[in-house]
Amino acid sequence: MAFLMNQMLGDKLKSFTGGGGEGNGKAGAEGKETAESKGMSREEFEEYQKQMVEEKIQRDKDFATKKAERANLRVALRDKYRLPDSTQDTALVEMAGDDIDVPEELAKMVDEDEEEEEANDSFLNRLQNLDMDTLKTKAQATMTEMKQNAEEKCTLM
Predict the structure, then answer these.
(1) Which residue from 12, 27, 145, 154 has the highest number of Cβ atoms inside 10 Å of its Cβ?
(2) What pTM was estimated for this model as a whole?
């Protein structure tokens, strides 16, 4: 009875569940897929394999492009913030060539950050460019002037 059920439903069950772990002659000697194991004609199977290879190449190409875009962004951020360079990122950008740009969304974020920094940068630049000696003498002169005014107005001092 079990033999009869296996004969009738075995192939349908295996195709439904992914073929199982047993290669009962249909999968070839090395366990590779064949046209018969997929239920296709030879031409269909060759076309299917070509399509699979093309899709894999496209996925790999897209992955490499995304990876290079990220590396390009990291290099740009390292340049912007004057951080040490990463040889791995530099190598990825060089391998990708000039075709790789920073993704638009990330470029917008970086541009917004630059605009904010430029607004803050003007105040910081003025603060750094101040001459501390003149600032100190002005502050001391103001304090002595205030002290003299307070002494003139106040009878207790």
Answers:
(1) 27
(2) 0.45
Query: What per-residue string of b and e applies to 25-63 under the rule 16 or more CB within 10 Å gives b?
Result: ebbeeeeebebebbeeeeeebeeeeeeeeeeeeeeeeee
Considering all CA atoms of the chain, what is the largest pairwise distance in Å, rounded to the nearest integer? 121
In contact, 92 and 71? CB cutoff 8 Å: yes
Q: What is the pLDDT, as a whole number, of residue 25?
A: 44
**Residue whose tokens read 């917004």:** 112
> Which segments of the chain does DSSP mark as H helices, in order?
2-17, 35-38, 42-80, 87-96, 104-129, 132-153
Give percent of the chain with pLDDT exceeding 70: 69
Number of residues that make up the chain: 157
Side chain identity, residue 29: A
* 8 Å CB contact between 6 and 14: no
Q: Is residue 68 a contact partner of residue 74, using CB atoms and an 8 Å limit?
A: no
